[in-house]
Design a protein that fits this description.
With 196 residues, the protein is α+β, with helices and mostly antiparallel strands. It has one domain. Helices cover 56% and strands 13% of the residues. The strands form two sheets. The chain has a three-stranded antiparallel β-sheet with strand order 1-3-2. Helix 1 packs across helix 9 and helix 2 packs parallel to helix 10. The longest helix is centred in the C-terminal third of the chain and has 23 residues. 29% of the residues are buried. This is DUF3793 family protein. It comes from Enterocloster hominis (ex Liu et al. 2021). Pfam families: DUF3793.
């Protein structure tokens, strides 16, 4: 992160839902990523929902407990297209999502994520697909138990680290741009509007 972006960030309300959305989800906000997870306080649920009203970003609560929530934010059409790609669809089907459309997929993911977070089930590795990670990296993570990766950043990479590093660099640039915009008083809706 540049010195300028870091300085701007130190002036922001780090507890605010909008700041957390900028810090955690900049690649999604700027249109280069199709989905993201946002973790905020439960009392910020309405604020998060209102931030994304009348934008191309949809939201779904995946987990709620002990005053915290995990919100899955996504660009619906892009996510649907990605999930319909052959190798992505086949891997998603192997996780038990055969024949499901996006609303059913998100409902099942939410149930599985909630069960895992409550200590009643395995981690739902399919979340990597819904976050747009390459299917070979999702399956590589599972096959290797999270070890033996070639590089890591926004996810652990098991194939094509050069491509992944380019993506990671793009995500980092998006975060810097979103921080600068937010530091200049630009709200979430306008960041989405101006950069998408």
């Amino acid at each position: 992160m540049s010195e300028e972006a870091f300085h701007i960030m130190t002036q922001m309300d780090l507890e605010g839902a909008e700041t957390q959305a900028v810090l955690q989800c900049a690649p999604l906000l700027t249109g280069i990523k199709m989905s993201n997870l946002l973790h905020v306080r439960e009392g910020q649920q309405r604020e998060v929902a209102s931030m994304f009203e009348a934008t191309p970003v949809s939201s779904r609560i995946l987990y709620k407990k002990n005053g915290r929530i995990s919100v899955f934010l996504y660009r619906e059409q892009r996510l649907k297209r990605f999930l319909s790609v052959g190798k992505v669809r086949r891997l998603l089907d192997s996780f038990g999502y055969r024949g499901m459309e996006l609303p059913e997929i998100l409902s099942r993911l939410s149930d599985r994520y909630q069960r895992h977070m409550d200590g009643r089930g395995e981690f739902p590795h399919e979340i990597g697909l819904l976050l747009g990670y390459p299917p070979e990296d999702v399956s590589g993570f599972i096959e290797n138990g999270g070890k033996n990766f070639l590089c890591s950043g926004y996810w652990k990479v098991y194939k094509d680290p050069a491509r992944a590093r380019r993506i990671f660099d793009g995500y980092d640039r998006a975060r810097e741009a979103a921080i600068r915009m937010a530091g200049n008083g630009t709200g979430i809706r306008d960041i989405i509007k101006y950069t998408s």
